[in-house]
Every structure is written in structure tokens, then in C-alpha cells.
Request: fold
Amino acid sequence: MNDLIAGNLTCLTGTLGRAFSAEKIRAVVAGPNSKDFHIKFPNAAAYSIPAADSAPFREVMATFRFEAVIYLATREDHLLEGGSRVTAEGLDSLRNMLEFSRAEGVKRFFLISSTEVYGDGEDTA
Reply:
């Protein structure tokens, strides 16, 4: 079985990868900084491609025929640090992952998030 981990790879990636490895599930980690995670567990592969980049991500999706996709949401302040272009790429990434998952017949899609992703909730008006 193959599972994909994508999105904000700075959180949970190692923990999920090790858990998948223990269960003999192939973990594929894909994102713009995936090579930063010196993947050192069996049954793992890493691809340094952003999910907003349609063609390479579509190829990875078709190659591995994933049972599940785990998308780790990016905190709002991380998106805003790069301005509106980065925010748009974050939204494009999530939309692409949902569309590719549907097109490839992925059975399960998990969006992992927290209230931290949606900002601090302070009323600025």
C-alpha cells in the first residue's frame, strides 16, 4: 500500500513516515522542501515538487496509485510571509491535491489542520 504525505512538511512528516514504515506502508513525501527531511526509514520516497506544480504532481499521483493522501495544512502566518503569491500557491496546492486524488481514485483524503492554521482569531476591525 502507498500513502502520500504532502503540504506543510515541517510538521508530523517524520512521525507519520515512521508509523507507516512500521506498518509496512510505503510513505511518499512530496513537497517543495521534502529533500530537507533526510528520509531514513524503510519504504519511503521523497520528491521535491510543489503540489501547485500540476504536471509533476500528477505524474507522482499516477505512478504510485495511493490508497490515502494526507495533506498537512500550512499556518496562515507561513503563507502570509511570502505575500499573496505564496497564499495563492498554498490554495492551489490543496485544490490540486483534491482534484488529483479524485481523478486517481484515492479512497481516503485526510486534511490535518488545527485552529492555528486559521489565524489568531483577534478582531482587527
Notes: The longest strand covers residues 2-7. Confidence is low (pLDDT under 50) at residues 82-87.
